[in-house]
Amino acid sequence: MNLQILSPVELRRAIRAGELKGNTSGLAQGFVQCNLAILPADWANDFLKFCQLNPKPCPLVGISAQPGDIAIAELGEDLDIRSDVPKYRIFKDGEFVEEVQDVTQHWRDDLVIFALGCSFSFEEALLADGLDVRNISEGVNVPMYRTNIECKPAGRFSGTNVVSMRPMKPADAIRAIQICSRFPSVHGAPIHFGDPAAIGIEDIHSPDFGDAVTINEGEVPVFWACGVTPQVVLEQAKPSFCITHSPGHMLISDLPNSRLAVL
Amino acid sequence: MNLQILSPVELRRAIRAGELKGNTSGLAQGFVQCNLAILPADWANDFLKFCQLNPKPCPLVGISAQPGDIAIAELGEDLDIRSDVPKYRIFKDGEFVEEVQDVTQHWRDDLVIFALGCSFSFEEALLADGLDVRNISEGVNVPMYRTNIECKPAGRFSGTNVVSMRPMKPADAIRAIQICSRFPSVHGAPIHFGDPAAIGIEDIHSPDFGDAVTINEGEVPVFWACGVTPQVVLEQAKPSFCITHSPGHMLISDLPNSRLAVL
After folding, report:
1. Cα separation of A34 and A227, whole Å?
2. CB spacing of A193 vs B177 below 8 angstroms
């Protein structure tokens, strides 16, 4: 099976059939992939408020219309959120319980689906412009760091931003800021560059998540709000029940990346 | 005379009448002010090419339709370029000859007018967004530096970029990049930030033109291509004759700044 030529709906069906179990990086080029958070209805309103107050780490791309819905119509044809993501993580009272390839057995009629934008979309735009995206050129996961930048709290949800980092020369960073500004629903423009300590990062060579990447002479670290932020916030809020995607194993949508561009 | 309430055409008439001889900083809020270069027709084609190849330091806002014209229709009503700028500098064979308040006596029927965008427009947009523009808050001329960033040569014109510098915290610099990207015809986005040595600046506290400004803890210098670049290039090319505005003494146009926004 040549995964590269499959459309988003074909990829989701392959995932549903258990034929595709790996991470989704590099698949469905040109289409939006989403971070996933699934919460009981009694936690959903607070989380929705949290996303609206913190659009850079939590850019909402879609939300299910009614509790219990297994699809978000605008995100894809023939979508079954219970089986169309390669790997899920299940949490109870904030504790990680298990990683599974299908959550049909765990589904409840009070669950609300939140789909959040992911950096794959803006990385594609940076590459298309000829910029080097270090985690891609080095074939590793992007380095991510906890920071001291507080999110705006909403109900039971609060915490600090997690950021992803890509090193660039200043002129490339300026271009990256321009490119990413067009895509507010996939984290938008960077939120910091330069001195890591200014946002509470002690050691740039020891990321809290993902892998370290090379920072060359003349480059500065550039920091984007990261989709891991809501996962960290969810762990702290300890909702009674929660399903997320497993890192890198995203929901592939039918939305073209270009559809997210505001300009 | 309350200069603050005068319209662009009223200000030009006051300048023409000799009632206003100072610099134009802060006047005609909301309207484009221009750097000026006036050259004989046999030098004009090379300079036009130079501007087109180097739009960041030399953003063309207007050019006279025919040699000898004393106006650029799209820049202003009742405009006489020979008298409507408060102070001019005259060069012969690249040598500065004199500073005058009127060039009517020096006018020739082979002269071509080039009006280039100026940083006043983007500084106004930065201030409107609540950002601190240090040279304005400290009431001094913006610091400017020669760099090692080569312009693209065109005919007899070549040289390196001059940059202006405004220190900012990284998050403000990111916002400034977004704001200035909307205004390519007033120098557009910055071309560098951070390490001055990377672009050939030896001492950030000793600008080559203008005044030094305070750089606070946590701020980085942010560098924009500067309208002094064409003046330096003109000095090197040594055209037989040339008229420029005197620094800070700009041509006030009828164009609203917002008209220059590409987005």
Report:
1. 9
2. no
